[in-house]
Design a protein that fits this description.
The strands form two sheets. This protein has a six-stranded antiparallel sheet, with helices on both faces. Strands 1-2 form a two-stranded antiparallel ribbon. The chain has helices at residues 8-18, 29-36, 40-52, 69-80, 85-99, 141-148, 155-163, 205-222, and strands spanning 56-58, 65-67, 102-109, 112-119, 134-136, 166-169, 176-184, 190-199. α1 packs across α3 (40-52), α5 (85-99) runs antiparallel to α8 and α6 crosses α7 (155-163). The protein is of the alpha+beta class and 227 residues long. The protein folds into two domains: 3-70, Winged helix-like DNA-binding domain superfamily/Winged helix DNA-binding domain (Arc Repressor Mutant, subunit A); 82-222, GAF domain (Beta-Lactamase, 2-Layer Sandwich), CATH 3.30.450.40. The chain contains eight helices and eight strands; from the N terminus they run αααββααβββααβββα. Residues 70-227 form the IclR-ED domain. It comes from Caenispirillum bisanense. Keywords: DNA-binding, Transcription, Transcription regulation. Residues 7-69 form the HTH iclR-type domain.
Length: 227
């Protein structure tokens, strides 16, 4: 990107927001400084503007900083822009009930993936993840599907495209196995990855294959719904 199309102050403010990665609900000024590498005085100036527009708040109890309501508003707007939303949720519930495992829909966000929609398994022992969770693209069935359908030209991406699905066992979490397929629009454009994941100890090869077939059926029903 050309330098004239970038605003350093905006990028620094966004770097502050990126510190809130979901691992901790609130951060101290020192923690923000450590994560960004910025001087505390710089962070305070940036936070002043972020607070003004509702992107960051400060807890009165301990002075720690948290994300503000404006972030939720933008996140909600982003999720609403998917016309698929109304169709995906019933499919996720169907997949969960059919397989007994957790069903999810992921989209790509730069070099990461975001769990946009999810229906967690109703079993007490399950693979649980919250909507909005950000995960790397370095492992997991949904990551391989996303990479394969967004420009991946390596051998694994080729195999995933040929198979029309990806399977992972213990890649991101040693106790979790997952199956994922692409969700395409009516013109073949990639929308996201539809996934079923569960404890590897019970989500064995036969069940994964059955889940893959159920996922393909769901993806076929979703195809044609335009974003």
């Amino acid at each position: 990107m050309a330098a004239e199309n970038r605003v350093e102050a905006v990028e620094r403010a966004l770097a502050v927001l990126d510190c809130f990665d979901g691992e901790k609900q609130a951060l101290t000024l020192a923690e923000l400084a450590e994560r960004t590498g910025f001087y505390k005085s710089t962070i305070l100036r940036l936070i002043g503007s972020l607070e003004r527009f509702g992107y960051v708040g400060r807890r009165a109890s301990d002075g720690r900083y948290t994300l503000g309501p404006a972030v939720w508003r933008l996140g909600s707007a982003y999720r609403r822009r998917f016309a698929l939303a109304g169709a995906i949720r019933p499919e996720l519930a169907t997949l969960r009930d059919h397989t007994g495992e957790t069903a999810s829909f992921y989209v790509r966000d730069g070099d990461k993936r975001v769990c946009l929609y999810r229906e967690n398994s109703l079993r007490a022992a399950r693979h649980h993840l919250s909507e909005g969770e950000v995960l790397p693209l370095s492992g997991g069935a949904s990551a391989w599907v996303i990479l394969a359908w967004t420009g991946g030209d390596d051998e694994r991406s080729t195999r995933v495209r040929e198979a029309g699905a990806a399977i992972s066992v213990g890649e991101r979490d040693p106790d979790v196995a997952a199956v994922a397929v692409p969700v395409l629009d009516r013109e073949g454009g990639f929308l996201g990855a539809l996934s079923v994941s569960g404890l590897a100890s019970r989500f064995g090869p036969e069940l994964r294959e059955a889940a893959a077939e159920a996922l393909r059926e769901s993806a076929a029903r979703l195809r044609g719904v335009v974003v």
